Amino acid sequence: MDVRLIECDRSRSAEILAILNEAIENSTALYDYRPRTMAMMETWFDAKTKGHYPVIGAVDENGRLLGFATYGMFRERPAYKYTVEHSVYVHRDCRGHGVGRKLLEAIIERAKTQDYHVLIGGIDADNVTSIELHKKFGFIFCGEIREAGFKFGRWLHLVFYQLILETPARPVDG
């Protein structure tokens, strides 16, 4: 599959929304119950813009969005300023073709250029494919919250994987 990476803007909102809503309705990749709306996407893009957080898309030769990756604030306290939590979502028809790998690689590189130090992935414990992908990039297991969510009539366990980057060269307090 020929994949090209792009910066996604609001013009891709409907495609991103479709990928997210499919994951909400059919998987435990998101611990949401109800599909998101276009108004929610506007708020989401506002937060990404305000925080200078990238939304990187993978498109095919026809420009169709195959998946996207992003990150955002891990926690609100100032001392967490070098840590971000990332997400990677791939269109259901494109899984298993290396799209997620390209997106995760791109988001790691972007985090380095923005001088982040730690990438955190919160992953449903049953999502072995995502866990294995993260391990291939050097992410290590750093914790589990058992029964963190309840969806599809069962308790869900949330695991965390982290990647420590060599950036920033000169971290500062404050």
Task: Summarize the helices and strands and which ones pair or pack.
Blueprint: E1 4-7, H1 13-26, H2 38-51, E2 55-59, E3 65-73, E4 83-90, H3 99-113, E5 118-124, H4 128-136, E6 140-151, E7 154-164
How would you state the average pLDDT, rounded? 96
User: What structural class do helix, strand and pairing data support?
Assistant: alpha+beta
Q: Ends: how far apart?
A: 45 Å
Order of helices and strands: EHHEEEHEHEE
User: Approximately what portion of the residues adopt beta-strand conformation?
Assistant: 25-35%
Q: How many separate domains?
A: 1
CATH class: Alpha Beta
**Major β-sheet, in short?**
7 strands, mixed
CATH topology: Aminopeptidase
Helical run tally: 4
Tell how many strands the DSSP assignment holds.
7
Tell the overall outline: globular
CATH superfamily: Gcn5-related N-acetyltransferase (GNAT)
Q: What percentage of residues falls in helices of 4 or more residues?
A: 25-40%
Across the major sheet, the strand order is 1-2-3-4-5-7-6
What can you tell me about this protein's structure?
By secondary structure, this protein is an alpha+beta fold. It has one domain (4-164): Aminopeptidase (3-Layer(aba) Sandwich). The protein has 4 helices and 7 strands. It has helices at 13-26, 38-51, 99-113, 128-136; strands at residues 4-7, 55-59, 65-73, 83-90, 118-124, 140-151, 154-164. Strands 1-2-3-4-5-7-6 form a 7-stranded mixed beta sheet, with helices on both faces. β4, α3 and β5 (118-124) form a beta-alpha-beta unit. The longest helix is centred in the middle third of the chain and has 15 residues, at 99-113. It is globular and about 40 Å long. The model has no long low-confidence stretch (mean pLDDT 96).
